Amino acid sequence: ETAACTRARLSGGPPLVPSSLVSTPHTDPGTAAAAPLSHLSTRLTVVSDGYCGRILRAPTHGTRKDGHHEFRLRVEGDPETYQPASTYRVVLLATSPAYFRGFTLIALKEGREGTTDDDYAGQFQIIDEDDTQFMTNCAPAVTESTPRRRTRIQVFWTAPPTGTGCVILKASIVQKKVIYFQDEGSLTIRLCEKERVFGEATETPAMECCACGTAKYRLTFYGNWSEKVHPKDYPRRANHWSALIGASHSRGYVLWEYGGYASEGVRQVAEFGSPIKMEEEIRQKVGSTSDGASAGSLRAAPSAEFSVDRTRHLMSFLTMLGPSPDWNVGLSGEDLCTKECGWVQRLVTELIPWDAGTDSGVTYESPNKPTIPQEKIRPLTSLDHPQSPFYDPEGGAINPVAKVVVERIARKGEQCNVVPDTIDDIVADIGQEEKEEDDTPETCIYSGWSPWSACSSATCDKGRRMRQRMLKAQLDLSMPCPHTQDFQPCMGPGCSMEEPSTCMMSEWISWSACSVSCGMGMRSRERYVKQYPEDGSLCQLNTEETEKCVVNDECYTIPCMLSPWSDWSECSVTCGRGMRTRQRMLKSDPAECNEELEQTEKCMLPECPVDCMLSEWSEWSECNKSCGKGHTIRTRMLKLEPQFGGSACPETIQRKKCKIRKCGKKSKETRGHRMLLSFVPTGCRMQPWTIWTDCTKQCGGGIQERFMAVKKRAKGPQMSGCKDRKEIRACNVHPC
User: Residue 323: is the preceding peptide bond cis (ω within 30°)?
Assistant: First the structure.
């Protein structure tokens, strides 16, 4: 666990199983340190994909390539690069007279298959909920709200953060037929991150890994490079994987990465399969390294163990595909620390070959041809060169050549994961402890187990494979030392120990319209693969049927001639949501033509300014004095705050002077110990003033009142002025 890197010779293995990451990784920075991949045995558990992975792995035959040129996916402005964290308008449209009823739109990191949350790039934003919504079973994808005839939809897409690399935007179309996701063509857009100009600000560094203790992992490599899966120009002699070399490390160290340049160590692995220089480079960065596991046979799945901690929580490795110019597979900077401060439980990744950018050969056995100047590391595609063994004129995806399984087998030290351990976590740790405890006597000293041998069966008949260990010392001759050999059941390459499950198919969709308006034509119907077999195999059942159809015995046609659609009109509003329209002209007899001549769609502009809105002024209050000089006030209420740059609110309270009459004699209040000048008729006895009421508003101008009631009213005509009194004053006039 203290070594810095490990080598193990790689080999072929069982077919690839699409699967997913059980725990979501969390990326964190660190220092330039690395730890080793060391020797280990093999174990494979199938983990099935989610719905996202299944829709992206739709069958490549049938209508996958039919008619997609009638449709186009477009990023407004047609940029070739994206600015990290910037927002773009993405439009999916149909060319007249085509239309579509449904669609799916998705954004993936280049080279990813959509089987884990980390495969998706950026974030979509819905513009019109009547047209679009997020897919229920695949949250990163956008689909139609209701299936209906349409020629255009639009959404916003916010680009991912710096360091994501290239992104693939893909769309699928549902018309009368289904047009599946394309790897190339008008329904696919490839955008790469805009290179940062020197002096520009960099993104905020990621948080450090918060996991505690250490975790031990087993990495198992399964080769799937075979003549059956990759038949074109398959080299029948000398085909091999080079020694596997890798390390666990911090974010400060990069073994290799897409978009970067290969080091001399990577070049020597890529071109010659030699790990010596690579080991030296790791040793220089880390300070120490050690030898790895011994070579395995061509049918054994080589494996290795390595440990990670809070500082060294990333893992990278590579191995050469031989013979080849400079082609490799591997993982780069795979983060095993989760955002919940725990350690990833299981990771399964299919691997496609990548080009190191150091040799320009295009076939397995091309002569050496150094690439000058050196190019960046990039994944191979099916359109690189017609002579390439992976070439496909239709631009389909390259079949993976290998798979890697990384399993957590032990944890040490105090753990601090936020999410409580599951039963699987506990069982995995206990299982490892029980596996390490066997009935070997303490008086027997053994070497470590060798790698598993080749399977005794090269076919799908059951065989077995063996591993051995040496007895180094027997301290007690009276105590036997057993178990120097271990056996395990196995099958040949491409076979599974378990019975594969069957395909689950949908019901047939209704027949399409006949391909002709009269005479004999063709019609078709389709169905979908609802669930793929758990063993990763392809469904062999047909997804499309065609048959002949006859329309009318006597053929005659009345053409429906239409002009092209006009440009969209300006939005009906200058701000906010509005409508826009476009038209086309009918150039033939309208009697038999039912095509629409005008289309309308919603449009959205920046929000409109909203001015402050106030109520009407209240009536003027009574004068706050019953005699002499006083004041009266009036107020109005705030009904709507200003928004989006609207005009500010004017005053909400006004005051003006008032004078009732001159004051007469002075009457002394019985409470409050203060004098009040007011006219009180002789013989009219008053109660003292009440205390002021609470202010009617906390801010922006309110009012307070107090009252004086008649205590005793004398008789006589002069007593008409003997009545209850009220005073009003302004309060809390400060702005809100």
Answer: yes
